[in-house]
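Exercise 3.2. Students should predict the tertiary structure of the chain below and write it as structure tokens, then compare their answer with the key that follows.

Predict this chain's 3D structure.
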Amino acid sequence: MKIAWLRLQLILSISGCAGREAQPLSDASTLALNLRSGAVTKAVRWEARKTAFVVCDMWDDHWCKGAAARVGELAGPMDRLLAEARRRGVFIIHAPSTTVGFYKDHPARRRAREAPFTPTPVALTKDTRWGTGWCYPDKAREPELPIDDTDMGCNCREKCTIREAWSRQIATIGIDPAADAITDDGQETWNLLTERRIENVVLLGVHLNMCVLGRPFAIRQMVALGKNVALVRDMTDTMYDSRMRPKVDHFAGTDLVVGHVERHWCPSFTSADLVGGRPFRFREDPRP
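Answer key:
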């Protein structure tokens, strides 16, 4: 009897495990995110098909050697994150500013150009001194950044010469011709979002203290347009020289800017919310 009972328990256990394995760990059509705003973290679920990930300025090269190396290190983990987001139904917009001409015949570029025009609820910035429209800090909303980037942020031992180094998005990050879009234009971005009834916009890429805040498809503009905005805080970097105020190491400087964004613009989450494991960390980050 005891053997028969144990055999029955084993059968029930196996069938129970099989039943549990048949169920997904989470609904693949939603994004379970832990949105952090300073000391407060809120668990939310966003519908994947109503969410866009915008990849900001992950160029193939940079005038700063250190910045270029960090983009190269970040690109592989970012590509894996984007693949998982795309699999769930998230819309991916690649925004390598001033280089979209490289993709003039790419289906993803045509998708952005051909999206139906829709007026924006607020006027888009017309300042093009940085190659595309630029949203400068809103002094009524945010104080100055917690880092001094007036030297343009090169953290290399010998300062690199500023030049036009980029020609396209880094090739490590795949672009799906059947699903993604390519644009660096604020109006085209709005057209794409409206066409798909997208409510949530997630920013990732570089550099947080500059382009990820200021570009016409980036955080300040998307908040002004009324979208639910979030930053992937382990999928970004800053242009910050640790010899400048407040004289902390480069990665601590990036965290200070993340804190600034969380306080004044939008919450953040990490890639681990989608792909599991630990958040991405740069190899040169010296902190415990």
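Discussion points: Residues 95 and 129 are 17 Å apart (CA to CA). Residues 1-25 have pLDDT under 50 and may be disordered.
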